[in-house]
Design a protein that fits this description.
Strand order of the largest sheet: 3-2-1-4-5-6-11
Low-confidence stretches: none
Number of helices: 9
Radius of gyration: 19 Å
Number of strands: 13
Strand content: 15-25%
Largest sheet: 7 strands, parallel
């Protein structure tokens, strides 16, 4: 059953996906309460506008009753709760077991807060890391064998939050996000590293880039999350990607071509990571069947917008006349 979204809460609202989701919700006429880490340097990414309310609130505070009662707190009854907030998503922090275990608790706190706010739907952000390594398209039925603390915690958070939502009478959807790119992506990612190096006319080093990979533009990811909240199936797990895998080197050369072939490409300059995933692709057939979602952006279109966004922020790239 479709749920009309008039009021939504978003944790992790200053991240790449959180910003795109907030923008899309506002464009659809929804009012958004964005929960932002206290003192976050990224708070300015969300420009003040009609329909947006920003509240400084750490994940550790989701369980506090004063979230609802204090001045400036969440007052309006909400429809959907999007939980994107997570600590320790990169590097060694992925295997910080205490930190990852805390994230499970924060997810359950988010579910309880959503229930107190009267939400009908809870959408939680999982990860392809829940699956571990596989050479098949990822579906809701693909066996999950995570290989790090981050993936284990995401898997547990998804399963436990689903059970808690059932007991609280809320619809629950869990999304397993693959590789998303776009404005506000982290500099350490392959795509943003390539754009930064090419913009500076430097040599960009990569692995042999033989992996078959699924990339989805962040605006499409935001629309997918919106449609899942509006039309998704209770208890469903949706892998989110484009549904198509291409050799990683094709993406690299596409970026290079879009940037007038400035800089140099050094394939094989970086060794593959230990336990490197060589195939990553989402099967989005269930997502499409349940919600009608299909990507609107090709990689070429999405990367062009991403390059333009990067150029406006750095002044290193000029629009073509």
């Amino acid at each position: 059953m479709a749920s009309r979204i008039e009021h939504a809460v978003v944790t992790g609202a200053t991240g790449m996906i959180g910003i795109a989701l907030t923008d899309y919700l506002l464009s659809q006429g929804a009012c958004v309460t964005a929960l932002i880490r206290k003192g976050s340097k990224r708070a300015g990414r969300l420009s003040d506008r009609k329909g947006l309310k920003k509240i400084e609130l750490d994940l550790t505070e989701l369980s506090k009753e004063e979230v609802l009662l204090s001045s400036g707190g969440i007052e309006q009854k909400q429809d959907v709760f999007f939980h994107l907030g997570w600590e320790g998503t990169f590097g060694d922090s992925r295997n910080d077991m205490d930190l990852q275990n805390n994230n499970i608790r924060y997810t359950l706190d988010a579910v309880r807060l959503a229930a107190r706010l009267g939400c009908q739907v809870f959408v939680g952000a999982g990860s392809q890391a829940e699956y571990g390594r596989t050479e098949q398209k990822l579906t809701s039925a693909t066996p999950a064998f995570p290989e790090n603390g981050y993936g284990i915690a995401k898997l547990a958070a998804g399963q436990m939050s689903r059970i808690l939502c059932q007991s609280l009478g809320m619809r629950h959807e869990w999304v397993r996000i693959l590789s998303i790119y776009g404005a506000f992506d982290l500099e350490r990612t392959m795509i943003m590293s390539a754009i930064r190096k090419f913009a500076a006319k430097e040599t960009a080093g990569f692995s042999k880039a033989e992996q078959l990979w699924d990339y989805l533009y962040v605006k499409d990811a935001a629309r997918a999350l919106y449609l899942i909240a509006e039309r998704g199936r209770d208890g469903a797990v949706y892998p989110i990607g484009s549904g198509t895998a291409r050799p990683l080197k094709e993406y690299i050369f596409t970026i290079w071509d879009k940037m007038d072939r400035e800089g140099e490409i050094a394939l094989g300059a970086v060794p593959y990571a230990k336990n490197q995933v060589m195939y990553l692709c989402a099967d989005i057939s269930e997502l499409t069947e349940d919600t009608g979602f299909v990507p609107k952006y090709t990689f070429e279109e999405g990367i062009e917008e991403t390059i333009q966004w990067y150029g406006k922020g750095t002044g290193l790239i000029h629009e073509k006349g």
